[in-house]
Amino acid sequence: MNRTPDREDVPAPPNRLGLAGIEFIEYATSRPQALGQVLENMGFRPVARHRSREVTLYRQGGMNLVVNANPDDARVSRNADGAPVLSAVAFRVQDALRAHQRCIELGAWGVPSHAQAMELHIPAIHGPGGSRFYFVDRWDEFSIYDIDFKPIPTVDPHPPALAGMAYFGVVQYIGMGRSADWLTYFEQMFDFQSIPDEQRFGILPKGKLMKSPCGGFLWQLVEPEPWMDSGEDSPECLQRLGLGTPDVAAAVQALKARGVEFVESSQLHPEDRGALTRSTLGSLAFELVHR
Amino acid sequence: MGAAAMNMLAGYGMDTITLAGSLEAKLAAMKRAGFSQVMLMARDLVGHPGGVEAAVQAVRQSGLRPTGFQVLRDFEGLSGHLHGYKIDIAKSMLQMCAATGAKVLLACSSTSRHATGDLDQIAADLRKLAMLAVPLGIRIAYEGLSWGRHVNEFTTAWDVVQRADCPNLGIGLDSFHIVAAGTPLAAIEDLDPSKIFLVQLSDFMWQETPSFEERMTTARTFRVFPGEGVHSEQLADLVLRLERIGYRGDHSFEVFNDDYQQLPLDTVAERARRSAIWLHTDVLHRSAPLPDWTRGQARSPA
Lengths: 291, 302
Hints:
The complex is a heterodimer of chains A (291) and B (302). Chain A is α+β, with helices and mostly antiparallel strands and 291 residues long. Helices cover 19% and strands 29% of the residues of chain A. In chain A, the strands form two sheets. Chain A has a nine-stranded mixed β-sheet with strand order 6-7-8-5-1-4-3-2-9. In chain A, strands 11-12-13-10-14-16-15 form a seven-stranded mixed β-sheet. In chain A, strand 2 and strand 3 (55-60) form a beta hairpin. The model of chain A has no long low-confidence stretch (mean pLDDT 90).
């Protein structure tokens, strides 16, 4: 392609943390086997176990997913009858320490580290509800999992992604009238950019949408409907993962063959744009989005 | 207390600092007087014999809605160790505020001579405070104390809030400080009503308070309820101007008064109730709900 040289030096959108995608997603649960089964149906494979804690690493393609059943971390799940909780998102950044410091200076709440001897200290800040945002900078030259995790013998450490799936976004439930607060928070902390309401992906177009400054993933804020009982005091949390795939129909077919059920209603019929898995183990669901 | 009078008091609340006694006794007296909300002072929680947890329990059990939580002082404009120290204090205040279910934390403009007067720096610090408050679902109301070192009028506080440009950072208005500082009320027109997070009302007995010292002493020992002092006209003017620009939020009585601290709680709460009714009917000319006997008469029994 014939490229026109930049004549006007238009500045790129700021990405002051050097954000470069999602390194891992963490679920906390007091029923790790039950969650593991759901994840395996979704195409994830257990590839490694933590050296000192009850934590398992699942993977497919470029997606790392950590299941944390460590008693202290899984308490939140135990209190919800073992329902898994989307407990953390780890962002790839250029310099984890500097990213963490910058966020603290801007008004984030730091999370004290519980790393044991010889374990990796991954700096973190508090997210919505009891969730955390981690910062990871060693994703290029070597894997953080080599330090804290032992590979599960005889298992392919890099199982391919089903139907080309990759992390697409995170859905966050927020309180009534709180969109502006959270939009500003994510803009300030992570240089997320708001996406116009007309621009929508998938089949659940509610709420406010932002994209990461690296363009690697989306973030969706969803307020409760005015008629909902919980109203102003509805709890805030990370609710759901969005998985991108180049071919939604093929992904749905492959997942159905593995026993995954999809929501089929007049509004939410699986289609080319996206699909939603039926909730299991409480409100655990995955959203497929065409990318 | 009839339902009609209760309804009239809906937008007004007392402040725990006005009353003597235990937190439970204060809350009960407010409820008996017909109020449905309460402005909480951190000291009332911390000083509870059962600790903060028991105090939070008492607030929740009272059924009174927290108007807000006070007060974070001398927060902004500091640097180095002082800034770090104040961030820690702010975090503790935010956590207590969240525990009570209060949605607004009051932050008063700094009186510290160690604090900078650079309004952009002040705005940046308040923005940081607002960011700390986001995950807890709290809004920050920034109020200009009439003896604040650099910010001592609501107009300057509003300037700072605009510079910070943060959805959960707004302004807190306290009629005492506005009247004591002699800020022209016409500037109320410049405020965005959706960014007024708290309105505190009180009057006092002196015509003028020219010095910071006089303002401080009066503010801390001799405020009275709206309608009881010598600035009723100005107070009414303020409340009407707020009404006119579209403010529909709460009015809280921020009355520090040494005399009220040694009177029976019900006596003081009754004065607060009279004040609320004065504001509601005489100042705002809002109608009292129709008495019970007018309802249901025409309807035939089912």
